[in-house]
Design goal:
By secondary structure, the chain is of the alpha+beta class. About 30% of the residues lie in helices and about 25% in strands. It is built from 24 helices and 39 strands. The longest helix is centred in the last third of the chain and has 21 residues, at about 680-700. The two termini are about 70 Å apart. InterPro entries: DUF3857, Papain-like_cys_pep_sf, TPR-like_helical_dom_sf, TPR_rpt, Transglutaminase-like, Ycf3. Keywords: Lipoprotein, Repeat, Signal, TPR repeat.
Length: about 950
Amino acid sequence: MYLMRSLRAGLLLVAALGCLLGCHGAAAQQATDNGLKEVQLGKDAFTLGDPVPAWVEQLPIPEVPKSVSLPVVIRLADSQYLLGKTSELYFRRAMQINDAAALTAAGRLSIAFAPEYEHVRLHTIRIFRGQEQFDRTLTSNVRFLQREQDLERGVYSGRVTASILIDDLRVGDTLEIAYTSSGQNPVFGGKAFGAAPWDQNAPTLRRRVVLNYPTDRSIAWRVVGDRPLPPLTPTESVRNGFRRVSFDQQPLPGFPGETMAPPDFFGLRFVQFTEFASWSDVAAWASNLFEASVPKDGEFQDVVKRIKTLPSEPARTMAALEFVQSQIRYFSVALGESSHRPTQPDEVLRRRYGDCKDKSLLLVALLRELGITSRPVLLQIGRHGGLEKTLPSPQFFDHAIVEATVGGKPYFLDPTRLGQHGELDRAGQAHVGVQVLVAARETDAVSRVPADTGDIVGNEITERATLAKFGEEGQLDVRRVWRGLGAEQLRVVLERASHEQTTRFVRDALERRYPGATLVGEPVVQNDTAKNELSISAHYRIPKLATEVEASWVVSYALDNMQNVLIASQSANRTTPLRIPGFPFHGKYSFEINFPEQVSASIDPREHTISNKYFNATVTEYFRGSNARKTVELKTLQPSVEPADYPGYAEDLRSLNKAIGGAFAVNKAMLNNNAAKADIAHRLHEQHEEIIKKTTESIDGGKLTGSDLANSYCLRGHARADLDRVDEALQDANTAVRLAPTAANILTCRASVYFQSGQFDMSVTDYSNAIALGGGADGLAFRWRGVSRVYAGRMQEAIEDFAKASELGDREARLYSDMWLVATYGRLGKPVPADLVKRAGAEARGDWPRAGLAMLAGLMSPDDMLKSLEKKAGDEHQMALAEAYFYIGLRNLALGDTTQAQAFFQKTRDIGVIEYVENDCAAFELDRLKKLGATTSAKPGAVAH
């Protein structure tokens, strides 16, 4: 649809500095000849030197106070409307230019208009220089230009730009211009509407807007603006049968705009007026335009007959949409009434082209003939709100789509798009949350395109890297998947691209992150139109996958699918909403790397969730053995951030960026090439000895104080406790507590050492104190206190702790808390609560430890659980097995099979993951069973089910 923004489609006077010199709410722009061709007009379309109309009331130009020294000062901006039989607008502006940088833009003006129904009379172009005046009305160079780029985009509007070049404009000059425009697009049936911008980007000494209209016409007006400013109150009078409404203010401060404000925020006030009494009136006007004359034969009926053979209403809807999208090319001829009145379906079919309104009317006609309820819909692309603040008017709409009701559910279909195939429910939606006006007589208000109720990840990247040796070449497999709207957009791009272009795009995709990356073989493109999913997979060789940064090897990753989805403002003190560029967006990124085998880390899966009313983000990190993985899932929830919420949003964004990181780092000091040949128990033993050595050097160096020194003692104490040097470990832990007696993390450190030494009640006390000091927010302190209470024989209290830990923990941490909770219920002989069993079964086939939780809950056999670990390798596999064997032992305890329990506890101890709590607990269980007289020579037989 060709946008008619106001009284006369965007008649603009464009001057310097992007000031709003027009009177219709459209942003002024500096004139340029780029993409323009010169045209000739009829002699009456644009005239020079005409006298000012008698109905205009002239104002003197205010003097600029000596105290004002700004680059540009608008001395006068005067807009006067005569809304009679022929609507007219008189506009006058005087602007003083005090900066040489502004001269180029100020000396070149543009007026855009539609000669078919608009007439422009340029009264005055005058320069004031001191006491002198220079008339440039007849001597300025005026050219009439049409934008050829519009034709390239498939648009011909007939609009012309009068480009005016002002001679001899100097610093300190005041440039005055005045013109009157008359005429209106007949498609509006003579009804008046429009908007005059009030606030200007530059300081204004006097601003006035006057509405003159016959007293027998009902024209409403409203000052629209979202900034908290004093009300703008007009004066009203009646003379000679005309009502005069005058808004006048002097002076008016400048209002420089903030970047990235959403279109539904009216940062600059405007005076809106309209003769449409309600949105019902606007909808009725639009409905009249979209009355279709349905062809009774010919191709139209042939298409209907073919589509009717399809088996379902959704299939028929998609077939009609595909036909209009693919068989009718987009081209807009928006001359006169055709700017808003669509062409009839038979003519569109005959000429095989049309714009949004033409294609929408054709689609509505097809759907109705197929028995599918459908209605045309008007919208402004990208506007998610704001119409509720305005008066009813056609000026806010620039696009037409179709609402089809299928199976009782509304679907909003855009016939100008391409690449939509397959199932109706999986079709992408480009206008989620946008305000719309259904062009139907029953419409009485604007509404919105509903958000998709599904939870489809629309943009997903999975990257898997392998590095056999540091300093050498690595391998990287990348798979990127687009679903819904993204799949449709890329499908069109790939259809138009050559094979060589596609290959080059995939080949160069990682060059910035990994210079010298080489594509191996051909990229694999999979296009599933039924599911509306498209993927590209590729394999790369990376010359320097890991780079040396000081004392570490670093492998970087980058969330290419989430770039600029969320942004920060240039100013922390924002006064306008901040647009979220990625709304709507739901994406996922995963990077996984297998490091050389001498790497043996033991970071349990952990999850960081950042959630507010603007976005939800979850960052999951995992690093076990030589396998590291980072996963990020992000979903935007609102199109913009309110100013009052911006500080919190910005803080959340910083937290998200911190959680995402951007690289995995492996400290060279923790690598041991000889240890790579040993088993995991020996490697972990050597790593712990190295930790003790390094922390001892730091402690003895005498440079650490306070919490830093306490943390060093804690780190060394943990390492000593893992090596069963509990007396030394307790000394370190006690020293740490003396240095930082109120630090929750230091108390949890000593609580852990107490636990490893078998002093369970002392451990419970320290965990309780840590929780009292705020150390339980993430649930971990509750879980560890629960474990200590289990071995202290306080089972019911342990259950309460595990439940609290599960409530507070993130999704990954909750799994381990739930495992202990299920196991403790089993030890007490109590049934597991139904909600806990449900959680255990929800992701039983997911990554470890999900299978372990399902096994404990009786939803999976131990054999199947162990089989789920077979895909893991190296230390990662051994670490998971150490946990798995322990939890099989707990399950056998619950079943009363102490022999099997003892055997699996021993298997956990034999693997020797000394830093795992399961390793310590297995020792406690073996000691307890031995005291109970269990058979110590028992061998694990078939796994108990």
